[in-house]
């Protein structure tokens, strides 16, 4: 790959078209690489954030640090793309809020009402089924579910209390939820699992 250099002292007069011509392919490769790891990311937005990162790197590059421009710029470009994803993700999470009842009514109206364990348990008739399924869990798995759903603890807090690794706490919670799903689905179909 050819060495990429910052624009010279006259770079202020160069417009966006010049930057695109000089560095557009490189920014696009970095955006495509990042998008392959984060498929939900919009390519156009990654390209825009990458161009901003390139402009910042061209303004801030200093040869006295002994770092090549390519190494410096690649970090700035990738960082700008990731920062843009973070900012956009935070704003999207704040804008999209669904009420459980609204989703449920829409699903029933469309004839696509889900039959997963959670939707089955929202009705009062199925609380006995949940209680029976919880009694089948090993003590540690029951504790983890209680701490997660009743005490609103995350995996890190649960792991610290139980003196296990965070990954192990996560695996136990996943296994407990899978066991509950199997038990509840079987009971709902009339085939209780012992």
Features:
about 190 residues, mainly alpha, Rna Polymerase Sigma Factor, Chain: A, Arc Repressor Mutant, subunit A, 2 domains, 9 helices, about 70% helix, elongated
What report would you give on this structure?
By secondary structure, this protein is an all-alpha fold. The protein has 2 domains: 9-95, Orthogonal Bundle (Rna Polymerase Sigma Factor, Chain: A), CATH 1.10.1740.10; 114-188, Arc Repressor Mutant, subunit A (Orthogonal Bundle), CATH 1.10.10. The protein has 9 helices and no strands. The protein has helices at 16-37, 43-60, 69-95, 100-110, 117-121, 127-135, 139-150, 155-162, 166-188. Helix 6 crosses helix 9 and helix 8 packs across helix 9. The longest helix is centred in the middle third of the chain and has 27 residues, at 69-95. The N and C termini lie far apart (63 Å).
Q: What is the N-to-C order of secondary-structure elements (H for helix, E for strand)?
A: HHHHHHHHH
Pick out the low-confidence regions: 8-13
Give the domain tally.
2
Q: Mean pLDDT, nearest integer?
A: 76
Largest sheet: none
Q: Terminal Cα separation, in Å? A: 63 Å
Strand content: under 5%
What CATH calls the topology of the largest domain is Rna Polymerase Sigma Factor, Chain: A
Question: How many beta-strand elements?
Answer: 0
Give the helix/strand class: mainly alpha
| Broad shape | elongated
What's the layout of helices and strands?
Elements: H1 16-37, H2 43-60, H3 69-95, H4 100-110, H5 117-121, H6 127-135, H7 139-150, H8 155-162, H9 166-188
Helix pairs in contact: 1-2, 1-3, 2-3, 6-9, 7-9, 8-9
């Amino acid at each position: 790959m050819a060495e990429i250099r910052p624009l010279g002292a006259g770079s202020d007069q160069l417009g966006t078209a010049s930057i695109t011509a000089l560095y557009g392919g490189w920014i696009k490769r970095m955006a495509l690489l990042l998008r392959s790891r984060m498929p939900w990311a919009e390519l156009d937005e990654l390209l825009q954030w990458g161009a901003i990162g390139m402009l910042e790197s061209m303004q801030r590059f200093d040869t006295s640090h002994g770092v090549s421009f390519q190494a410096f710029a690649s970090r700035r470009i990738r960082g700008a793309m990731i920062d843009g994803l973070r900012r956009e993700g935070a704003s999207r999470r704040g804008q999209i809020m669904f009420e459980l009842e609204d989703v449920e009514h829409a699903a029933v109206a469309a004839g696509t009402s889900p039959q997963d364990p959670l939707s089955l348990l929202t009705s009062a008739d199925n609380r006995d089924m949940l209680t029976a399924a919880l009694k089948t869990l090993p003590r540690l798995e029951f504790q983890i579910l209680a701490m997660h759903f009743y005490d609103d603890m995350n995996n890190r807090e649960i792991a610290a209390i139980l003196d296990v690794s965070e990954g192990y706490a996560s695996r136990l919670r996943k296994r407990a939820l899978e066991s509950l799903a199997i038990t509840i689905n079987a009971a709902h179909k009339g085939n209780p699992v012992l």
